[in-house]
Amino acid sequence: MDNFAKKNGAMMKLVHSFWLLIFLVVAGGGSETTAQDLTADEVDLQVRPRLEWREGYRRLLQPLEQGSLFSQQRTRIAWRHGEGKWEVKLGFQDVRVFGDPAGTGEQHGRVSASESWGAWKPNDKTRLTFGRQKIAFDNERIVGAVDWSQSGRFLDGIRWDQTSGLGKSTAALTWDAPNGITRLMFHHVYEASNQRLSLLYFDQHNSRDAAQTLMTYGFTWEAGTTQGVSSLLEGYGQSAVATAENAEEMVFMGVAELRYASAELGKVKLGVDWLQGSDGGDGSGLDFFKPFLGTNHRHYGWMDHFYVGGPANGLTNLHLQWKRDFHILERIATWDVRYHRFYQSDRRTLLANEWDAVLQVQPSKDVKWFVGWSWMKATEDMYAFQNRMEGAGPWQNWAWVQVNFSPKIKL
Question: Of 153, 334, 380, 385, which has fewest CB within 10 angstroms of its CB?
């Protein structure tokens, strides 16, 4: 009975906090709405087949272990309808491996709701959205939609967006009932000439494990010049629910990037990510900084060895990226090359070097195709870090080919 009261009290606290944030948003102003106003019905279609070769996916290969080749397809259809101050979106998706039988059997042919929400817009600056929706803030380092994956990420809940002269704000309350998780988010963005500042408060309550109830808060600041030079600084802290074991505990994440863009060179980015960790952490409580809803594949290497299903206990990531547009046979194309040098968070132990490269070609407005290749050289310390046996060789590879058909139809 006491546990039920504690869980119910924590839930009510989150709900009350959410409505308090909505009051502050409405009174003080500001966030960008997630969808444009509709003057007619619109249907979004997507067919995205993908062929992948994986070696040591999320974990290093073991001796005598072989890589795997498989094909997947994501199929989506979404209908949006707007009428006056109201809007609705119904979206469904099916993700399957090529060769799985179609039909209505228990294991095959299931289609699930990806996006399914209704929105009320009392004016052109206010929007309230109910239902399953896509939520992403800033560069998706803390809260992201993970759309690189075939399934993506959608959250059930309530979201309030408000825009005013003070900026753009969002308050959201979401539920993940199977995992006993409730999330309360507040995001505010202020933009000025060549500058952008955003603030994020993210409270993730875990009713099944109090040690995993953490608050994350911080900022993202971007500044640029007319000469094509820009910079980014991010700082976030994470604190635990006050218990006898972890009272006063806090961990941090810091990011610094320097960027340059020109018509001849393209875009170049040099940066460092630091996520605090501990040498003897057991994965509970505040052993290391946790980007719970981050699109980590975007930031910590496409091989997904860090913070995407694999072991994670803090990280230092030195990275370099070069991205350039050009033409192939009169088609618009983009080349994206990245280098990562991964250390443990203490910056003394080298874990791996990783190179990522992808070529994107857009033969028409609604069609894009991609060819990508990632390869990583792991050290002995990384094998020890993942508790894996050496013998398969230090090099791991991941290659993929993808075609994306995504037309929009106005009705």
Answer: 380
